[in-house]
């Protein structure tokens, strides 16, 4: 088991400790300026959903995978994104490229498997064959098909970049769309993720959960620390303080530091002398739909992918990243236990509440929803989303 040190200097660690001590002692948390009203239709409006996919997800980098999920050349993954299903393929030079999972002949789904290793992809409908670099290699019974320029029938490619151990994709095959993850993150968050050495981790396991819930409902659930006592009384509530957060905006994105109840063991000490590492969790929220939760011995990565073509539908993706590959039965048992805890919290508690919330906001007679001053990360998310849609090509 590997416990990693927080990549902050002594002053910053002491600052985290002091903030947590003060909030717990005074029963406070970081606050927004005022209560925010949000129209409940943001969770169901088809036109807003269309705009989000076209104007945000079709232009900005989002998480598609962790690089360790494609360790070798010719490895591939099929990944569902808001606009397209994409096939990620590790190239011989180590780069990863992404292609829309559609045969260029008649529009059949080209790759049926979720993952594997393959030099070529052959369409199961008529047998057209494409190489791992997306090039059309063979047309079945070509002599009878007719004259076409094969160089114009390669797979449609989406922009892909590897950074911080992740595979990022812009979900559009439009030729003028580019990807620049560092610019999207901004210098402060990019530096923070560099310090966490995310590329040194490996993906232990991943899970996809398709739900009839708007993606913003789920993003909201994982931004706030206000619901722990009410929603998670049977799982993590005994181990974490409810409604105690230290918030920092990082350009478009943000960071939340939360306190574990184990912090009570050291609250009588000078903050500068406390090893705060095992007493807090740190979550980086990356717009529009991703969170990285740093635990002392692993990372939990959550990604909320809008379902293509409809407002109410999301694929919730969960990953556990660990510092060293699990080889022994003891190591595997430890991470399986962590995964089961995550399932109990997210699948068995959060999803139950949020399925009901989605049903409730379909009622006709509703008033604006309220986000309190204590729900500061949620407020940032909704403010950012409004700005992003009002700010074409800058996205807030």
UniProtKB/TrEMBL annotation:
Cofactor: Fe cation
InterPro entries xrefs: Rieske_2Fe-2S (IPR017941), Rieske_2Fe-2S_sf (IPR036922), Ring_hydroxy_dOase_asu_C_dom (IPR015879), Rng_hydr_dOase-A (IPR001663)
Keyword annotations: 2Fe-2S, Iron, Iron-sulfur, Metal-binding, Oxidoreductase
Pfam families for this protein: Rieske (PF00355), Ring_hydroxyl_A (PF00848)
GO MF terms held by the record: 2 iron, 2 sulfur cluster binding; iron ion binding; monooxygenase activity; oxidoreductase activity, acting on paired donors, with incorporation or reduction of molecular oxygen
Residues in the signal sequence: none
Key word Metal-binding present: yes
Location of the Rieske domain: 62-169
SUPFAM superfamilies referenced in this protein's UniProt entry, alphabetically: Bet v1-like (SSF55961), ISP domain (SSF50022)
Top-level taxon of origin: Bacteria
PANTHER family xref list: CHOLINE MONOOXYGENASE, CHLOROPLASTIC
Name recorded for this polypeptide: Rieske 2Fe-2S domain-containing protein
Native organism: Amycolatopsis acidicola
């Amino acid at each position: 088991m590997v416990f990693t040190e927080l990549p902050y200097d002594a002053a910053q660690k002491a600052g985290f400790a002091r903030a947590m001590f003060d909030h717990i002692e005074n029963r406070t948390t970081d606050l927004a300026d005022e209560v925010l009203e949000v129209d409940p239709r943001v969770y169901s409006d088809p036109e807003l959903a269309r705009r989000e996919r076209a104007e945000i997800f079709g232009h900005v980098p989002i998480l598609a995978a962790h690089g360790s999920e494609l360790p070798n050349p010719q490895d591939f993954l099929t990944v569902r994104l808001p606009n397209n299903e994409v096939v990620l393929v590790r190239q011989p030079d180590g780069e990863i490229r992404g292609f829309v999972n559609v045969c260029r002949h008649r529009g059949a789904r080209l790759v049926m498997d979720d993952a594997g290793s393959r030099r070529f992809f052959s369409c199961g409908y008529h047998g057209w064959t494409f190489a791992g670099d997306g090039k059309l290699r063979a047309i079945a019974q070509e002599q009878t098909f007719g004259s076409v320029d094969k160089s114009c029938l390669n797979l449609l490619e989406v922009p892909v970049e590897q950074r911080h151990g992740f595979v990022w994709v812009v979900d559009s095959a439009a030729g003028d769309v580019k990807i620049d993850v560092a610019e999207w993150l901004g210098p402060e968050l990019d530096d923070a993720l560099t310090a966490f050495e995310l590329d040194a981790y490996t993906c232990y396991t991943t899970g996809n959960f398709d739900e009839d819930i708007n993606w913003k409902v789920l993003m909201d659930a994982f931004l706030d620390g206000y619901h722990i006592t009410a929603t998670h009384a049977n799982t993590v509530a005994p181990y974490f303080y409810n409604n105690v957060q230290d918030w920092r905006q990082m350009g478009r994105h943000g960071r939340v530091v939360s306190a574990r109840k184990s912090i009570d063991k050291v609250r009588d000490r000078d903050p500068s002398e406390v090893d705060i590492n095992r007493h807090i969790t740190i979550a980086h929220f990356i717009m529009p739909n991703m969170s990285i939760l740093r635990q002392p011995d692993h990372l939990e990565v959550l990604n909320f992918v809008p379902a293509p073509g409809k407002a109410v539908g999301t694929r919730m993706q969960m990953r556990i990243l660990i510092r060293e590959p699990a080889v022994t039965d003891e190591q595997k048992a430890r991470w399986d236990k962590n995964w089961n805890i995550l399932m109990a919290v997210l699948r068995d508690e959060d999803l139950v509440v949020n399925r009901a919330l989605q049903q409730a906001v379909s009622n006709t007679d509703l008033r604006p929803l309220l986000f309190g001053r204590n729900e500061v990360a949620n407020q940032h998310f909704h403010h950012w989303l409004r700005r992003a849609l009002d700010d074409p090509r800058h996205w807030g």
